[in-house]
Amino acid sequence: MSAIIKDTVIYLNVAKYSKLCFNMLMIIDRDILSYIKKILSGNPEIILLYGPRQAGKTTLINNIIKEREGVVFLNGDDIRTQELLSVADLRSLQNGIGMPKILVIDEAQRITNIGLSLKLLFDNDQFPIIASGSSSFDLANKVNEPLTGRAIVLKLYPFSILEIPIKLPNTSRISNLEEYLRFGMYPKVVTTIGENEKQVYLQNLINQYLYKDILTFETVRKPKKIIDLLTLLALQIGSEVSIDELAKTLSISKIVVEKYLDLLEKMFVILNIRGFSRNLRKEISKTSKYYFLDLGLRNALIQNFNPLNIRSDTGGMFENFCIIERLKAIENHQKFANYYFWRTYDQKEIDLVEEREGKLFTYEFKWSLKGRSNNSSVYEFQKAYPNSVYMQVTPDNLESFLTVGV
Asked: CA-to-CA distance for 166 and 153, rounded, in angstroms?
């Protein structure tokens, strides 16, 4: 079932509860929307909106500008837009754009000299500008120097579980947790009912968008190696990653692996979390864990959408989901935090260390409470960092975890 777009707000039909089938409308608003509107109500600003393809940037922008007058909307994929904005000449830009009350440029990373053109327009005409891009690497390289001190940078990820409204009686967001772990949180996926349709969409996302975006980077000589690299990461979810082993398996150099990992992070495909250390003799700090910004994309790479009760990677998937949802919750509310994992040479470990507001918050993720407890690791960490706070996160208290400090 496809989403129905009305007045640029996403509506969807929700069905299949018990043996009954019924339809109801459910509005999904983005947490970042009110913050952007607040910015636009003040002095003119340049807003750079980064995020992966298909995360809903265009829908969000439409929702922002739908009730505003004097908006000029340009698409960076359009050749005429590229020609207009690539020429960093103030008079030509003014003649082509005029004096809008808001200038919006979608897929701005496609435009040569976009940073300098935006600087000229903003410095001389002082109207609000929203520029969006699906690659922070490409767009940031074009705007960083010209727009230093002039731009507010925001990120839009796929839906957060906290953005999904609760509309049905006797249900909660967590009631659909298994579906989110299997198929992820892309708007199109969340607003589609059929499992087969979700799988087809995610496979197309890899083939039509991810692969296409990789090909746009001239420094990538073997794009298939990046897909192979992602597949290896998908199979090591929640585990420390050895760059040397990845390079050996892929038959490419360590330097190339590191370059590809950095590129994938800036394309909003993966997240790199490094080891936490204030005691270098005991704690491991030079390795990394990589998590996927969306589990649906990860599962599509390994072509495994099986139910959780017959999978061996459920614990790692739950850990991945919790960490990414925490990242969304913090950033969607304009908070700031640093993220690490913690491990010692004698195998003590903590899944996530969050450094926020000058304090350390530690989290252990458990899909099931069966198995070994992590009490000794918690004791060692709190002994080394006595003012830290610990929380064990399970599906039952997931929402509480996501709203701590937000």
From this structure: 30
The pTM (predicted TM-score) of the whole model is: 0.88
Q: CATH assignment of 167-406?
A: 1.10.10.10
Domain map of the chain by residue range? Answer: 33-155, 167-406
Contact 86, 112 (CB under 8 A): yes
Using CA atoms, how far residue 275 sits from 7, 198, 324, in Å, is 46, 35, 17
Sequential DSSP letters for 49-85: EE--TTSSHHHHHHHHHTT-SSEEEEETTSHHHHHHH
* Radius of gyration in angstroms for the set of CA atoms belonging to the chain, rounded to a whole number: 22
**Where is 267: in which H helix or E strand?**
none
The Cα diameter of the chain in Å comes to: 69
Confidence of residue 365 (pLDDT cuts 50, 70, 90): very high
Q: Are 181 and 295 in contact (CB under 8 A)?
A: yes
For residue range 308-318, list pLDDT tens digits in order: 999 999 999 99
Provide the sign of the torsion angle of the four alpha carbons 51, 57, 60, 64, taken in this order.
positive
What are the start-end ranges of the H helices in 100-235? Answer: 114-125, 136-143, 177-183, 187-190, 195-204, 211-215, 223-235
pLDDT per residue as tens digits for the range 165-212: 876 666 677 889 999 999 999 999 999 989 999 999 999 998 877 777
Q: Please report, for residues 54, 170, 404, the alpha-carbon distance to residue 51 in angstroms, rounded to integers and kept in the order given.
A: 9, 34, 24
Rounded distance between C-alpha atoms, residue 32 and residue 42, angstroms: 16
CATH topology of domain 33-155: Rossmann fold (3.40.50)
